[in-house]
Amino acid sequence: MRAVIQRVSQASVQVDGTFRASTGPGLLVYLGVGRDDGEPDIAFLTDKIRHLRIFSDEAGRLNLDVMQARGQVLVVSAFTVQADARHGRRPSFDDAAEQDRAFVLYQLFCDALAKTGVPVSQGVFGGYMQVHAVNDGPICILLESRKAF
Fold it and tell me: Fewer Cβ in 10 A, N or C end of the chain?
Protein backbone atom coordinates (compact mmCIF):
# COMPACT_ATOMS: atom_id res chain seq x y z
CA MET A 1 0.00 0.00 0.00
CA ARG A 2 1.35 3.37 -0.95
CA ALA A 3 0.36 6.88 -0.02
CA VAL A 4 1.30 10.37 -1.08
CA ILE A 5 0.62 12.67 1.86
CA GLN A 6 0.35 16.42 1.39
CA ARG A 7 -0.07 18.91 4.18
CA VAL A 8 -2.83 21.26 3.05
CA SER A 9 -4.61 24.35 4.27
CA GLN A 10 -7.65 23.08 2.34
CA ALA A 11 -8.55 20.40 -0.18
CA SER A 12 -11.68 19.24 -1.98
CA VAL A 13 -12.92 16.69 -4.49
CA GLN A 14 -15.26 17.53 -7.31
CA VAL A 15 -17.07 15.03 -9.58
CA ASP A 16 -19.05 16.23 -12.61
CA GLY A 17 -18.95 19.80 -11.32
CA THR A 18 -20.31 18.87 -7.88
CA PHE A 19 -18.24 19.10 -4.71
CA ARG A 20 -18.29 15.68 -3.01
CA ALA A 21 -15.82 16.04 -0.13
CA SER A 22 -13.58 18.64 1.42
CA THR A 23 -11.25 19.28 4.30
CA GLY A 24 -9.87 22.29 6.05
CA PRO A 25 -6.31 22.36 7.36
CA GLY A 26 -4.84 18.87 7.55
CA LEU A 27 -3.76 16.17 5.15
CA LEU A 28 -4.63 15.15 1.62
CA VAL A 29 -3.82 11.46 1.19
CA TYR A 30 -3.64 9.81 -2.23
CA LEU A 31 -3.92 6.08 -1.49
CA GLY A 32 -2.86 3.32 -3.87
CA VAL A 33 -3.68 -0.29 -2.99
CA GLY A 34 -1.36 -3.05 -4.19
CA ARG A 35 -2.50 -6.52 -5.20
CA ASP A 36 -0.67 -8.16 -2.27
CA ASP A 37 -1.82 -5.66 0.36
CA GLY A 38 -3.81 -6.64 3.41
CA GLU A 39 -4.59 -5.70 6.99
CA PRO A 40 -0.92 -5.33 8.08
CA ASP A 41 -0.45 -2.71 5.35
CA ILE A 42 -3.55 -0.85 6.52
CA ALA A 43 -2.35 -0.93 10.12
CA PHE A 44 1.10 0.36 9.18
CA LEU A 45 -0.15 3.28 7.08
CA THR A 46 -2.93 4.19 9.51
CA ASP A 47 -0.48 4.43 12.39
CA LYS A 48 2.15 6.25 10.34
CA ILE A 49 -0.24 8.84 8.92
CA ARG A 50 -2.03 9.41 12.22
CA HIS A 51 1.26 10.07 14.08
CA LEU A 52 3.34 11.69 11.33
CA ARG A 53 4.71 14.90 12.83
CA ILE A 54 4.58 17.35 9.93
CA PHE A 55 2.71 20.27 11.50
CA SER A 56 4.47 23.20 13.10
CA ASP A 57 4.49 23.75 16.83
CA GLU A 58 4.68 27.17 18.51
CA ALA A 59 8.42 27.33 17.80
CA GLY A 60 7.87 26.62 14.09
CA ARG A 61 9.31 23.10 14.26
CA LEU A 62 7.59 20.12 12.62
CA ASN A 63 6.60 18.57 15.91
CA LEU A 64 2.82 18.04 15.79
CA ASP A 65 0.74 15.28 14.24
CA VAL A 66 -2.60 15.83 12.52
CA MET A 67 -4.65 15.40 15.72
CA GLN A 68 -2.44 17.74 17.75
CA ALA A 69 -2.81 20.31 14.96
CA ARG A 70 -6.60 19.79 15.04
CA GLY A 71 -6.46 18.80 11.38
CA GLN A 72 -8.61 16.70 9.13
CA VAL A 73 -7.82 14.15 6.43
CA LEU A 74 -9.18 13.80 2.91
CA VAL A 75 -8.42 10.36 1.43
CA VAL A 76 -8.51 9.99 -2.36
CA SER A 77 -8.20 6.62 -4.06
CA ALA A 78 -5.46 6.77 -6.68
CA PHE A 79 -4.37 3.48 -8.26
CA THR A 80 -1.74 5.47 -10.16
CA VAL A 81 0.24 5.72 -6.92
CA GLN A 82 1.04 2.03 -7.56
CA ALA A 83 2.56 2.86 -10.97
CA ASP A 84 5.94 1.45 -11.92
CA ALA A 85 7.60 3.89 -14.31
CA ARG A 86 11.14 2.51 -14.06
CA HIS A 87 11.11 1.05 -17.58
CA GLY A 88 9.93 2.58 -20.82
CA ARG A 89 7.67 5.59 -21.10
CA ARG A 90 4.30 4.10 -20.20
CA PRO A 91 3.80 3.29 -16.51
CA SER A 92 2.83 -0.24 -15.57
CA PHE A 93 -0.03 -0.78 -13.15
CA ASP A 94 0.49 -4.53 -12.77
CA ASP A 95 1.07 -4.20 -9.02
CA ALA A 96 -2.21 -2.37 -8.41
CA ALA A 97 -5.01 -4.36 -6.79
CA GLU A 98 -8.08 -5.35 -8.76
CA GLN A 99 -10.85 -2.78 -8.35
CA ASP A 100 -13.14 -4.83 -6.08
CA ARG A 101 -10.32 -5.76 -3.70
CA ALA A 102 -8.89 -2.24 -3.78
CA PHE A 103 -12.29 -0.79 -2.83
CA VAL A 104 -12.56 -3.05 0.22
CA LEU A 105 -9.04 -2.21 1.42
CA TYR A 106 -9.50 1.50 0.70
CA GLN A 107 -12.66 1.50 2.80
CA LEU A 108 -10.98 -0.46 5.60
CA PHE A 109 -8.11 2.06 5.59
CA CYS A 110 -10.49 5.04 5.80
CA ASP A 111 -12.43 3.36 8.61
CA ALA A 112 -9.25 2.51 10.52
CA LEU A 113 -7.97 6.07 10.24
CA ALA A 114 -11.32 7.48 11.39
CA LYS A 115 -11.27 5.14 14.41
CA THR A 116 -8.10 6.93 15.60
CA GLY A 117 -10.22 10.05 16.10
CA VAL A 118 -9.13 11.97 13.01
CA PRO A 119 -12.00 13.47 11.00
CA VAL A 120 -11.83 11.67 7.62
CA SER A 121 -13.49 12.63 4.34
CA GLN A 122 -13.32 10.50 1.21
CA GLY A 123 -13.13 11.04 -2.49
CA VAL A 124 -15.21 8.93 -4.86
CA PHE A 125 -13.58 5.52 -5.27
CA GLY A 126 -12.98 4.71 -8.92
CA GLY A 127 -14.46 8.01 -10.04
CA TYR A 128 -12.95 10.63 -12.26
CA MET A 129 -12.25 13.43 -9.80
CA GLN A 130 -10.94 16.93 -9.88
CA VAL A 131 -8.92 17.36 -6.72
CA HIS A 132 -8.32 20.91 -5.56
CA ALA A 133 -5.66 21.48 -2.94
CA VAL A 134 -3.81 24.35 -1.38
CA ASN A 135 -0.53 22.80 -0.29
CA ASP A 136 0.83 24.14 2.96
CA GLY A 137 4.59 24.37 2.87
CA PRO A 138 4.59 22.50 0.54
CA ILE A 139 5.13 19.35 2.53
CA CYS A 140 4.74 16.11 0.57
CA ILE A 141 5.66 12.71 1.99
CA LEU A 142 5.76 9.33 0.23
CA LEU A 143 4.91 6.28 2.33
CA GLU A 144 4.99 2.61 1.39
CA SER A 145 3.82 -0.10 3.76
CA ARG A 146 6.46 -2.57 2.55
CA LYS A 147 9.11 0.10 3.17
CA ALA A 148 10.50 -0.20 -0.35
CA PHE A 149 11.53 3.46 -0.16
Answer: C
pTM of the complete model = 0.95
How many degrees, rounded to 5, is the angle at CA 19 between CA 51 and CA 7? Answer: 25
Q: What distance in Å separates the CA atoms of residue 110 and residue 89, rounded to the nearest whole number?
A: 32
CA atoms of 26 and 23, how far apart (whole Å)? 7
Pairwise CA distance, residues 10 & 96, whole Å:
28
Tens digit of pLDDT at every position of the chain (149 positions): 999 999 999 999 999 889 999 999 999 999 999 999 999 999 999 999 999 999 999 999 999 999 999 999 999 999 999 999 999 999 999 999 999 999 999 999 999 999 999 999 999 998 899 999 999 999 999 999 988 77
How far lies 28's CA from each of 3, 53, 89, 102, 148, in Å?
10, 15, 28, 19, 22
Count of other CB atoms within 10 angstroms of residue 44: 17
CB 131 within 8 A of CB 8: no
